[in-house]
Amino acid sequence: MTGSTQTGIADERIKETSFIRKALIRPELGGIVGTIAVFTFFLLTAADSGMFNTQGILNWSVVSAQFMIIAVGACLLMIAGEFDLSVGSMIGFAGMLIAIFSVTLSWPVWVAILLTFAICIAIGALNGFIVIRTGLPSFIVTLAFLFILRGFTIFFPQTFERKTIIGGIKEAAEGDWLAPVFGGKIGGPIFTWLGDVGIIDVFERGTRAGEPVVDGIPMLIVWALGLVIFGHVLLTRTRFGNWIFAAGGDAEAARNSGVPVTKVKIQMFMFTAFCATVFATCQVMEFGSAGADRGLLKEFEAIIAVVIGGALLTGGYGSVIGAALGALIFGVVQQGLFFAGVESSLFRVFLGAILLGAVILNTYIRRLITGER
Amino acid sequence: MTGSTQTGIADERIKETSFIRKALIRPELGGIVGTIAVFTFFLLTAADSGMFNTQGILNWSVVSAQFMIIAVGACLLMIAGEFDLSVGSMIGFAGMLIAIFSVTLSWPVWVAILLTFAICIAIGALNGFIVIRTGLPSFIVTLAFLFILRGFTIFFPQTFERKTIIGGIKEAAEGDWLAPVFGGKIGGPIFTWLGDVGIIDVFERGTRAGEPVVDGIPMLIVWALGLVIFGHVLLTRTRFGNWIFAAGGDAEAARNSGVPVTKVKIQMFMFTAFCATVFATCQVMEFGSAGADRGLLKEFEAIIAVVIGGALLTGGYGSVIGAALGALIFGVVQQGLFFAGVESSLFRVFLGAILLGAVILNTYIRRLITGER
Amino acid sequence: EGERYVLVSHAPDSDSWWNTIKNGVALAGEQMGVEVEYRNPPTGDLADMARIIEQAAASGPDGIITTLADYDVLSGPISDAISSGVDVIIINSGSPDQARELGALMYVGQPEYDAGFAAGQRAAGDGIGSFLCVNHYINSPSSTERCQGFADGLGVELGNQMIDSGQDPAEIKNKVLAYLSANPETEAVLTLGPTSADPTILALEENGMAGDIYFGTFDLGEEIVKGLKSGVINWGIDQQPFLQAYLPVIVLANYHRYGVLPGNNINSGPGFVTADGLTKVEEFAGEYR
Amino acid sequence: MSDAIIQMKNIQKHFGSVIALAGVSVDVFPGECHCLLGDNGAGKSTFIKTMSGVHKPTAGEIFFEGKPMSFEDPRDAMEAGIATVHQHLAMIPLMSVSRNFFMGNEPVKKKFGINFLDQQKADEITMQEMRKMGINLRGPDQAVGTLSGGERQTVAIARAVYFGAKVLILDEPTSALGVRQTANVLSTVHKVREQGIGVVFITHNVRHALAVGDRFTVLNRGQTLGTAKRGEIEYDELHDMMAGGDELAKLVPELGKQAQ
Amino acid sequence: MSDAIIQMKNIQKHFGSVIALAGVSVDVFPGECHCLLGDNGAGKSTFIKTMSGVHKPTAGEIFFEGKPMSFEDPRDAMEAGIATVHQHLAMIPLMSVSRNFFMGNEPVKKKFGINFLDQQKADEITMQEMRKMGINLRGPDQAVGTLSGGERQTVAIARAVYFGAKVLILDEPTSALGVRQTANVLSTVHKVREQGIGVVFITHNVRHALAVGDRFTVLNRGQTLGTAKRGEIEYDELHDMMAGGDELAKLVPELGKQAQ
Ligand SMILES: Nc1ncnc2c1ncn2[C@@H]1O[C@H](COP(=O)(O)OP(=O)(O)OP(=O)(O)O)[C@@H](O)[C@H]1O
Ligand SMILES: Nc1ncnc2c1ncn2[C@@H]1O[C@H](COP(=O)(O)OP(=O)(O)OP(=O)(O)O)[C@@H](O)[C@H]1O
Ligand SMILES: [Mg+2]
Ligand SMILES: [Mg+2]
């Protein structure tokens, strides 16, 4: 067991690589660089536009938090080697279910929410089950569900309520114990105090004159951070996380090594559905209505955030922190271009360019790390 | 060279398969079965709704022909192992270019059309070039172009014309030699004659009373059939077709065997762009206007038609005839549901279900053919 | 001088009708010497629109001009904006009552349902009993309200008379043809804007029903004006989007400069445009009309 | 015979219309190296896959330490003590060596009542085990994709050995290896066997088999041609059996002999 | 020396920071079988890839039939008469045998002034060539995915031979093959050589090399250890050279010797 000198420490066939470069190259590097670049850009161009006052910060934080919620699900699923194009439709569908249960059928809101979660997670599991059993690419299977779920999202309210938008959920949710978990805000007293001592602005007039302009952190942000931390810990610190990487890296090899690939993949589909439902519930509880158009194209936005964050589209590689940074970049750019006063139709052009730039950078970083060819 | 008895004619390790089954299983089988099923269904449920009179047939033929045009491009590209999510945006973009050239800049329509073809095909080549050079998945690269092209499609007309719909192309195209190639109809006299002798209906009321209900075959259908035949011959009867299969089946192996994979893939991206431009030009010439929202989601519809037609999403396998049948199924179902009076929001649900059913059937057929595991 | 106003709409980027608004607001800004911005959710998602209003408020403008496409979704952000000292004018959708409830300065526009209802009554007066509503934007609540209002104005059940046509012109055209050949007894067609009206005109020309079938449409565009002129379209409902964009800027600027404010809401729409007096409309259709 | 770790009786396996195994029986004793030989497509991989729980046999019985067993999936087999190094490597190039090493058997550490991955332990063990095998990694987080084929094979074997299997299955571990790596692997097999572990060693190469094998079973077209003990059988005999009788030797005498 | 078909002089090849070849010279004569031996990662595949136009050398010269040559891509090399069977098979499983057979060299037939694929000719030739190799296909449209590994290897070799190469390069054609298939491949090499074609045969297996080789070049870590003629060198010597000197043989004497 000693004859192998080919693995001696010094290898004359490898040119040197510097230490700093090695310390820097990690999956999130692209996301970190991007985040720094984006903030630098907007600090230079839009500093006095209100983008970085309390309200402004809350604004892009909330938008980024939205992206984060679905990006975490999409990220873990992508690392597990699959992806889900039905996320956007699932958001619309879940919101509509809550509305129908709580408004049309007048069930208690907590029942509506829990039941919706159960149904959506079951649909996620069905997605996963079909993908695994038929061996079809998840692109196709979830594309089918993109259409099916959107179809029902339009059909149900038209059939039951003859509208494509169902409102009145805020009223229905009054006094409900579960609704504030999604639609509430936390930290109110702190913000009141901050407003009182003048650290943040207060409303100048109206019924809420004297109250701080930001009266708490929306639960949406709490969910986003919670999911990012959960996802990150799950992925990097647990054995299940290792299985996610393995399932996405090479399903066959993982299966041979005793990783329960089928279970892992289906659970990731369920988790993605869970994230979509969290997104939908927060939105419905905040705005009090569900519309048939909610969530359009969100699946792409989730995938874009994840890919900007350094994950490999084909699975087996990525990071939740990266995806969260991707979501932050996405949110800040989307809102920031507005603050900077850029023509809104050009947003898509920017988005496309950022996406291309980010993946090229990420690919380069990944090749350095994994020695992939 | 004779010691190998393992390949003797009779192999006791293979159970028998019937001759008929072998004769039947071909890539298009799923498409053929689907087409028969769809027509049977609508003949039974919607026979008296006018779906199968002259007008009705023309109706779903035109819709199917549209899908076919983009499906042929998507099919060849998919067989070459890539796909293009920017097809829909390209349709909008191409139409807008024609409108801007011919209306805003008042250039002759034929110049506008030819220049648009040149620009769009160049963009297709750029797509392909980026995919090949960076080794990124085409999903990401073309997703970026989906956004970039749509952004410009909205930005240009707003900047030049302060509108998002540019009309007046019909007027500009009057007397142009190239415009009728895309927007005209052929076979008018034959239809007049058919109407006169009573084989097809004539209008009973309105401004056109006495004229035959169908006064010619739109060039759209001619283009569709032409492209299908061209694609089919190219794929199955030329050496280039073999290279398309090879490039998609295993790019590395193909390259080692001397197939110019890079060239093949880039040319297929260009061909897809060409098909999208044909689609856009036909539409602009027929309707006389270009809108910033044209072509939305067409990329998915093309992919769905191709996949229903039996192609493998990951490349190396498929058939243009199958894709054409997929487009036909798509068009007939979409229009047929109207004739049959089904709630229109359920169309998406049907589409999703058909997609799932078709790919499962196709996967089964493919495994029989290729012995894939 | 130099006031800044932001107009937030609920329409997706590529919508042609809203383009008129965009042009109107730009013109008003130029004339009044104020800075104006037009913002909209790229996909038409109202939840995204709420964020844009919040963001507009954060950027500290002097006034916000916004639609009220869904009271539930938008009331929160709008009332927060008002409370933080931004003056708000509601345009286009929502209702004068809702605008007042929120504390907006005024309402400029014509509620979708009411417009549809009025159109329905007019059609009923012309002896119409059944119709086809070509909805090219089924996801949006306001489109559905127009169809629903029309049906209620006619006094019939909406049911299957509204079709989800999609936005592809060829598909719209062929779906209309399919519907009309499957339901030949249909007496009227209602389209919701240029996107659905233009292909519908072609469809009717193709099946010979042009000029024969009763045809009404919302909003104006080049082809619609031609249709009105040739008699294919009986009437168009014009809310004059230009005014919905232009007037609020004028009102806000004058309010901020001189403290003057009209006492009433403004009805932007004169209602129906018919073949009479189309010249101006023709000239500026899609741009300012 | 009753002290065999694993007994496979009359195993059959069909894939659709393909009969991959038509009744194969093999048993493995502790401390022996049981070689499975056979031509391409003979069913060797399929056979050991039923042994390691990847496939379920269509018919036949498996006894593990005397008790009838049926493995639902590879985890079951692993937990029972069957470690497998598959022909097509069970390594994931994008993952680090230590994550690969512990894939499916990650060490955990309880913290706040939750089972966390014990990354530190995993890293230490990986480095140490790889060093034992003569491979000096740049670090435990080096991606497997950066290793050479021989190194990867060694990681896979080290992993299997480390997890204290009672039976170690190696599916053609030497086929793509050079002389040095081959010697390395063979001496590992030798060492493992001396620890009392039963080894199932699959190869095309009769010499490799003879170098370490105690018993030899030849498969042919899904059936056993019999099992022989070391010393009972000679190189030529084994070679002819693999080639499906002596016909081949006659046909290409010069090359056939010299080659193996 | 001037009648060598191909002369590779001092070929270097770097991949980023990896030096795969550090100056290797080899020449091939008509009708000879030149064996390339070497451990994993020695650079054998990289070397023949520069020969067949897949890689461009970082430094060094290639002379083909005495004239300096630089191949832009594999087509150039093929057209010059260099046929290669790559280690990782150049076969596409989803495509039919006949389409694979002619991949990159499809026969064409002019009709209406357009070059159409001559499918019938392709099918006939494929069936006939495969029959020559002892493989009876179900039909020319059978997918390669349904063939066994050995059969696929044979298709690849048959293809290379058919296209009338002046040099045939085989990259480890036998490593995954059983006894019978190996004998088959070796006898094919023998036949090809007798037709006056130069063969470059890469293997880890010294016996396979000795069975058919005329000259032997050993690569080690990107460098040549020298070239020897048949009869000038013995099994043990070659084996030790491959293993990088005799140190190995001392370390694992029993196994090392017996194994190969
Ligand atoms: N999943 C599968 N589906 C269908 N047939 C299969 C499957 N796996 C193996 N086979 C077939 O079963 C037979 C035995 O294959 P197996 O891989 O066990 O052979 P092997 O002895 O390991 O060959 P090699 O020496 O080439 O590795 C072959 O005919 C093969 O084609
Ligand atoms: N495309 C590439 N990019 C980077 N490194 C490469 C590439 N191809 C080969 N190498 C490296 O070059 C060296 C030689 O590889 P090569 O494949 O030529 O070896 P080989 O002698 O064929 O080995 P084997 O016997 O395992 O096939 C190895 O260190 C390998 O990792
Ligand atoms: Mg095997
Ligand atoms: Mg090699």
From TrEMBL, chains A, B:
Keyword Cell membrane belongs to the record: yes
Main location group: membrane
Compartments, record wording: Cell membrane
Molecular-function GO term, any one: transmembrane transporter activity
UniProt feature coiled coil, ranges: none
Listed InterPro entries: ABC_transp_permease
Pfam short name (any one): BPD_transp_2
Protein's membrane topology: Multi-pass membrane protein
Transmembrane segments: 29-46, 58-79, 85-103, 110-132, 138-156, 213-235, 266-288, 300-333, 345-365
GO CC, any one term: plasma membrane
Keyword Cell inner membrane: yes
Keywords, in A-Z order: Cell inner membrane, Cell membrane, Membrane, Sugar transport, Transmembrane, Transmembrane helix, Transport
Role noted for this protein: Part of the binding-protein-dependent transport system for D-xylose. Probably responsible for the translocation of the substrate across the membrane.
Protein name per the record: Xylose transport system permease protein XylH
TrEMBL record, chains D, E:
Superkingdom of origin organism: Bacteria
ABC transporter domain location: 6-246
Any one Gene Ontology molecular-function term assigned to this protein's record: ATP hydrolysis activity
Presence of keyword Cell cycle: no
CDD domains named in the record: ABC_Carb_Monos_I
Matching SUPFAM superfamilies: P-loop containing nucleoside triphosphate hydrolases
Residue runs in coiled coils: none
UniProt keyword list: ATP-binding, Nucleotide-binding
InterPro entries referenced in this protein's UniProt entry, alphabetically: AAA+_ATPase, ABC_carbohydrate_import_ATPase, ABC_transporter-like_ATP-bd, P-loop_NTPase
Protein name, per record: Monosaccharide ABC transporter ATP-binding protein, CUT2 family
Originating organism: Yoonia rosea
